[in-house]
Amino acid sequence: MEEPRMDESIEAEYTLEAAASCPRCEKKIETLLVVRLLRTRVNFTSALPRRGQVMVCSHCRAIVGGSLGGLI
Ligand SMILES: [Zn+2]
User: Fold this and answer.
1) Which position has the higher pLDDT, 7 or 12?
2) Which of 5, 36, 37, 54 has the smallest number of CB atoms closer than 10 Å to its CB?
3) What's the whole-number mean pLDDT along residues 47-65?
4) Distance CA 64, CA 7 (A)
């Protein structure tokens, strides 16, 4: 990973190109963190993928919206 001090539960960090504020802590967000989702239970008829990601505020870790292009 590019940031040696990064918490291992964080998959990546992205920088916002324009100012935004977190809906929960109301702080200005400059970076969003990507946290990996690992599927632990699933209905056998489900077509959902084994993995996913959520984007969280770098201050309070509230889940915020976003999307990632070119997923794995
Ligand atoms: Zn926040």
Assistant:
1) 12
2) 5
3) 93
4) 19
Instruction: Provide the number of structural domains found in the chain.
Output: 1
pTM of the model: 0.77
Q: Which of 42, 36, 39 is nearest to 50 (CA)?
A: 39
DSSP code at position 23: T
Range of the domain at 30: 10-64
pLDDT at residue 23 in the model:
95
d(CA 69, CA 6): 22
In a domain, 2, yes or no: no
| 5 assigned to some structural domain | no
CA of 42 to the centre of ligand 1 (A): 30
* Residues bordering ligand 1, an ion, CB closer than 5 Å: 22, 24-25, 57, 59-60, 62
